[in-house]
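Model: You mentioned two targets. I'll fold them one after the other.
Researcher: Yes, keep them separate.
Model: Target one:
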Amino acid sequence: MKTRLLSRHDIATILHQVGRDVLMDALIAALTGAFTSYDSRIVEVRKRDGFNYDRRRGGGGAAISQELAGGLLEWMPVLDLGSTSTVKMVSYNPKNPIRHGIPTIIATIFQHDIRTGHLLAISDGLFLTALRTGAASAIATRILAHPDARTVGIVGCGAQAVTQLHALSRVMKIDKVYVHDIAPEAARSFAKRVDFLGFDVSVVEVATLERSVDVLITATSVALGQGPVFPGDELRPHLHINAIGADVPGKTECPAAVVEAAALVCPDFRAQAVVEGECQQLPEDRIGPSLAQLVKESERYQEYRSRLTIFDSTGFALEDKVAMELFLGYADKLGLGSDVEIEAMPLDPLDPYSIESVAAELVESPARVAARK
C-alpha cells in the first residue's frame, strides 16, 4: 500500500507549469464549490489545537527560549465521512525569517483513507497554506467589498501578504496599493515581491493607509496582547477588512471599536474564531455568517457592500483539504509525485514480524551467495 508524496520540487513544478493566475483561480473556484456544498453532517471540521510555546512549564520547569517566544505547533483536522480524513500540522515561529531565513509558517498535510487507516498522501502545507488563505480572503472580498473598490491597504508585509494581494487581484480591479510594516525592510521589499502583478505600491504610515483604502488586509505577527495594528480613526464607511493574523486567544489585529462598529463580521470558522480570532471581541449575537454561509447566500449579503465589513480569517481546515486535493489532481495530470511505502505492512496481518520477509527478498543471504559460488 503506497503513499503519494508531493515534494518541494513537485509543488514548484505545478506552480511553474500551471501558472500563478490559473492556480489561484482554480483554488478560488474549488473553495467556492466546497463552501457551497459544505454540510457539517458529512464533513466534520474540528477547531485547531496544539502547543503554545509561551505556556511556560510551572513547578521549576524550564522556561522557553527566546527563539520559541510567540511560537505554536498545531494540528487542523477535517473528516469526510464518505472517504478521508485530512490533517495539517502547522508551526508558527515568528523568529524564523530573521534567525533562520525561512518562513514564519511551515506546514505539512496528511490524508488518510478512513476505511483502512492507510496514509494516502503527504503534501507540503507551507505554500498551500499561503495560497488557500489568500483564496479565502478573495472569496469574502468578492461578496462584501464595495463594487467600486479600487485601492488596497496591507498592514504586515510578510509572506502571507503576497498571496493575499495576488488573490484579491483575481476578483477586483486594483489601481493602487498602500503598505505598512513595523519592519521597514519588509515594507520596502514588498513592491519587488509583487512586481508580477504590476501594481503601484507605496509605503506609507499606517494612519495614511487606513484613510486611503477600500479594502484593508491585516497580515501581521503582532505579539499576544499587543494589538491593534491600525488606529481605526479614519476608515472609509464602505471599508472591507480581511483580518488574517489572529491565531491564538488574546491576539487580535483590529481595534475593538472597529469590530464593534462593523455592520457584518464574517468568521471563516465560527467555533475557532470566537476563541482566537477578531470574534473574541464580540458577543455571540453580533457575529455574522460563516464564510460557507456567506457563499451559499451571497446575494443576501451584498447589501453590506456599502458598509464596514470584516472577514475574520483564522484558518479553516476544510481549505487545506481542498488545496491538497487540487494539487494532487495537478500532480496526476503532470505525472508528478512519488509513491512510497511508509507503513511497515506485514505479510501476515496477524504477525508483525513477518515484515522481515520483505528484507529477505531484497537482500540475498550470505549462505545463498556462497552456495552459488
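Model: Target two:
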Amino acid sequence: MPRSAFVWRSGSKASVPPASTHPKRTPAASGLLYGLSAYLLWGLFPLFWPLLEPANPLEILSCRIVFCFVVIAIVLAARHELGGIRRLDRGTVVRLCAAGIAIAVNWGVYIWGVNNGHVIETSLGYFINPLVTIGLGVVILHERLRAVQWAAVGLGVIAVAVLSFDYGRPPWIALTLACSFGTYGFLKKRVQASPPEGLFVEGAVTTVPALVLLAVLAVSGQATFVGHAASVGHLILLISAGPVTALPLLFFAGAATRLPLSTMGLLQYVTPVMQFVIGVLILRETTSLALLCGFALVWIALAMLGFDGVRHRHQAPAAAAA
C-alpha cells in the first residue's frame, strides 16, 4: 500500500495517525516479571509439598527429580537443543553432575523440613545463604572481605548461636539448605551451558537413583503411587511436582539474562520472606523472642551487605577513573 494512504491533510499541514499507546515491553520489564514469578512460586512451596502426603519426603523428592527431568527434556526437544548436550566438555559435565547432587540434597532437606513443621527454619536457610556464599569465597577462592562484610558474617555467626540456644540444637535444616544451595551456586558460577542444558545434565545424574528409589519404595510397600493408597488425584499431584519445579527454574533463567545482579540479589529475598510469613501466620509454627532476635540479626547482616554492595558499586567507577 502506498505511503500516501497513511497520510491525510488538515489545512496545509500533513498529519499522521497517532502512535500506538501500548509501548513494547523492555527486556528489563520482562526480566522483572520473570524474576518475580520465579520467587513468588518458590515462596508458595510450603503450601504445596504437604498436599503430596501421605507420600514420604523420599518419594516426593524422587517424583520431583524424575518429572522435572521429563519437563526439561521436553523443553529442549521442542527447541531442537537436545543435540547441544554433546558439545559440553568433560569439566562442565562433571561440575553440572556435582551441582545436580547438591540441589537434590537441598530439595530433599527442604521437603522434609516443610512437611515436618519447620517452615520458619527453612526460610532461615535461604536468608543466610548469601553469608554462606561469602564464606565459600573466602575459604575456597581466598577472596578478601571488606570490614562491613566481615561484620555481617560475624552477625550471622552470632545469629546461628542464638537460634541454636532457642532450638536446643544447631539449626541443621537451615545450615544444610544454605550450604547445599551455596555449593550449587558456586558450582554453576562458571559453567558454559545454557540453563536448560545445565538442568538437563543435573537431572540426568539424579534421575536414575530417583527411579531406583521409587522401585524400592514400591517393592517394600512404602510407595503411595501404587497399591491401595494410590488415587488419580494423588498421582496427578505427584506428577505435577515436575512442572511445579521446572517452571520457576525456567522463569529464573529468563530473569537472569535480562536483569542486573543487583536486582536479582534483591528479588531473592522475596522467597524466604514469604516462607517466614506462611510459617508464622498460616501454619502457626511456634515462635519465641530468641528466634525473632536471631532472625533480626540475620536481617541486619543482610542489610549491611546490601548497603556495602551499593556503596562499593558507586565507588568502583570513581576509583577506576582516578
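Researcher: Noted. Anything on target two?
Model: The first helix runs from residue 27 to 43.
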